[in-house]
Design goal:
It is found in: Membrane. Helix 9 packs across helix 10. The chain is α/β, with parallel strands linked by helices and 717 residues long. The protein contains 19 helices and 25 strands.
């Protein structure tokens, strides 16, 4: 459904009766925009700009009016929605004389087709990073598009200047692909270095990760790799993940002045969080110390691009009165909100100037050429649009004062309006917190692998090391051989324990049994999966009945006593295949609980706290974006690939109930390698004409059998 909103106009401005010419500003905003969360946040800025342009800028014969058209969820989900919606708008008879407000790079590129076809200017807020999405590097300028809030050119120029100033070329750049902004910014910077700083581009390494599911151990692995190739580590991720990186960096000794970390916080925005060492947890003090190694880049708040206070007050007041949107008491409208106001005011000024010069103000290409390189004073201070079609922005580089617990500006990167010149101003005399304020070198004295020290006639370093180490190794080999043999013997005994899988009932301490409830039917491997726990304990209610304690840890039990199975040589041989089935995407099999009568009572496995994939997809209230869905798909692929290349061979019952989610949102495949705990009737592929009664039973009575057969036919080794 296309949502179009046309604000009310003054009836006295009716073009039919007054002879006035109306120019229509088509204002748009994505429904899933991370730059501007709702139209109500910017609506007052749009209204104020129209009112000021009509009252103080345009001739009386020209009036501006607005049409709001939703771009739909085109930032991350349905990128073609913006073109569909605007096609409907134009076909309804609306003539857009300018486009204002589209923000995400992906939807901005899609929207540009209309701007090019109609030859009207597009004022993006911000539309930063669109060049990274161009499939053809020769067509990455989008000449009719203006990035009014900010672009990435000044960011790339500032970072490149910093690297050159301190002779840095060995850079590790970590890119969080869970956040579109960080992913796109990282790709843009890499492309900028390729074109403008080849030395950095050749030596830099870009590594992608998913921040939402990044554990501390995985963070340590990333940092260990970076320490062996780089002295500068750039973190493109959410503020909380930045803090996690810094805490782990301190734990492994990277925050004592030898490594430089850089993060981005262009302006205050909930989407990327606020970089702060305080989270009211045990890591606060470590984070406070570690943040001394973290430099933060942000848009500068200077006289050349700051917000006029009176204008800010007016926007906040109108937002509350007309749109019931309340800014915080000390909050300023951010650069994207102001971009809407500035876009309309720039357009009005150019229309007026072009009329005065006898030019065709409906010629978008001509108007944009006039805007490029022009400094506008009196809109929101001083602003100018550079030759790259982006707003010239000053940036601040901030360093952390551990004593005060706050960031302060250390270096300013100042752009000169209408030129390509950038001035670097060092504000603080002491930039770095160690080594008398001097920045660390780009490489260690003898290289990252300690193999680049000059040879002064002595034995090479490697030879010296060999002379010392080899005798020590020879002396210790015999001493360690006995220890190694003992460990090997112990492992062999453990490996060949024929009863490793057997768990006596006395060793299991039952914590909760849902099967005792009168309104809940007992689940077993014939109906559901082999892991989880009840909702009343904070775990999934869908995947298991019983929560127990075993060897001081929680385990999930699935009751299989109804099948009346006793261990036999064939079963034990299949269980032995599970002994070495260890993979991050497989639920860990622990053993079989044996009743006093010798029957198989329970399947014992690790807890998967978030339930099954069906729970997440059907019953969860969380929003699942495609980054998260792709992560789940990858987990299934990795788990199944391990099964197919292992002696187990195949799963035989892969479905939404046997795909479980642990507390870290990692998908783990369960119910593998246990065919003897399944009803053989449900392992036969179902055909509609075989048994009509069974189809009802399968579809409604046994969820696992229904999904299992439909998926089993598609499993290939």
């Amino acid at each position: 459904m296309v949502e179009t909103f046309i604000p009310e106009k003054d009836n006295s401005d009716d073009s039919m009766g007054s002879g006035k010419t109306f120019l229509t500003i088509c204002v748009t905003l994505e429904e899933d925009s991370y730059n501007v969360p709702s139209y109500n946040r910017v609506a007052s800025a749009v209204d104020l700009a129209i009112a000021n342009a009509n009252a103080f800028v345009l001739p009386k014969s020209i009036r501006l009016r607005t049409v709001f058209q939703s771009a739909g969820p085109s930032c991350s989900q349905i990128q073609h929605r913006v073109t569909t919606n605007f096609l409907h708008l134009i076909l309804s008879g609306v003539q857009c004389d300018a486009f204002v407000g589209i923000g995400c790079a992906s939807s901005t590129v899609a929207m540009y087709a209309f701007s090019e076809e109609l030859n009207v200017p597009m004022f993006a807020c911000p539309g930063a990073g669109v060049a990274s999405l161009a499939l053809n590097s020769t067509r990455n300028r989008f000449p009719l598009m203006l990035r009014i809030s900010y672009g990435y050119s000044d960011l790339g120029r500032s970072l490149s200047s910093f690297f050159d100033r301190y002779n840095y070329s060995h850079i590790s750049l970590f890119r969080d692909d869970f956040y579109a902004f960080h992913s796109l910014t990282s790709k843009y910077l890499f492309n900028y270095f390729r074109l403008n700083n080849p030395k950095v581009f050749v030596n830099a390494v870009e590594t992608a990760f998913i921040g939402k599911t990044l554990a501390r151990d995985a963070t340590r692995v990333l940092l260990d790799g970076a320490r062996n190739r780089s002295r500068v580590i750039v973190l493109h991720t959410h503020a909380l993940i930045v803090r996690q990186f810094m805490v782990v960096a301190k734990e492994i000794g990277l925050t004592y002045g030898d490594y430089v970390f850089i993060a981005l916080e262009l302006h205050e925005l909930n989407y990327w969080g606020r970089i702060n060492y305080i989270q009211e947890d045990r890591d606060d003090e470590n984070a406070r110390q570690a943040f001394q190694s973290l430099i933060v880049m942000s848009l500068a708040d200077t006289a050349s691009n700051s917000l006029d206070e009176n204008l800010a007050v007016s926007i906040k007041k109108l937002a509350k009165e007309n749109y019931n949107y309340t800014y915080r008491a000390l909050e300023k409208p951010d650069p994207n909100v102001m971009g809407f106001y500035e876009s309309i005011m720039i357009y009005a000024q150019e229309v007026t100037l072009m009329i005065g010069s006898g030019l065709n103000y409906r010629n978008g290409s001509m108007m944009v050429e006039r805007i490029l390189g022009t400094e506008y004073i009196g809109i929101t201070g001083s602003l100018s649009i550079g030759k790259t079609n982006e707003r010239d922005r000053n940036l601040d580089m901030k360093t952390f004062d551990a004593k005060l617990g706050e960031y302060n500006v250390a270096i300013k990167y100042v752009r000169h309006p209408t030129s390509n010149i950038q001035t670097v101003l060092q504000i603080r005399d002491t930039l770095w917190f160690t080594n008398d304020g001097a920045m660390p070198p780009d490489k260690p004295l003898c290289g990252f692998r300690n193999d680049e020290c000059p040879n002064d006639g002595r034995l090479p370093v490697g030879m010296q090391v060999a002379v010392i180490i080899v005798p020590l190794i020879a002396l210790t080999v015999m001493a360690t051989a006995a220890v190694f043999a003992g460990i090997k013997l112990r492992n062999l005994r453990k490996d060949y324990d024929p009863n490793w899988w057997k768990i006596l009932m006395d060793d299991l301490s039952i914590k909760q049994n849902r099967a005792a409830s009168g309104n809940v039917s007992k689940k077993s491997l014939t109906s559901q999966s082999t892991a989880g726990a009840s909702a009343r304990s904070g775990y999934s209610a869908y995947n298991c009945d019983i929560l127990a304690s075993y060897k001081a840890g929680l385990v999930a039990l699935t009751d299989v006593s109804a099948l009346i199975k006793t261990p036999n040589p064939d079963m034990i041989s299949k269980l032995n295949l599970l002994k070495n089935a260890s993979h991050p995407n497989l639920q860990r099999f622990i053993g079989i609980g044996i009743s006093p009568q010798g029957y198989c009572q329970y399947v014992v496995a690790e807890i998967c706290a978030k339930g099954s994939l069906v729970d997440i997809l059907t019953f969860s209230t969380m929003k699942l974006d495609w980054s998260f869905k792709n992560s789940l798909i990858k987990d299934i692929i990795f788990g199944m690939a391990h099964i197919h290349t292992s002696p187990i061979g195949s799963h035989g019952n892969l479905n939404g109930y046997t795909c479980l989610i642990d507390s870290r949102f990692t998908l783990k495949i369960s119910d593998y390698g246990l065919p003897f705990f399944r009803d053989p009737a449900y392992l036969v592929p179902y055909r509609d004409h075989d048994n009509p009664d069974r189809s009802v039973d399968i579809a409604y009575g046994e969820h696992r059998s229904y999904y299992g057969n439909s998926c089993r036919r598609k499993e290939h080794k």
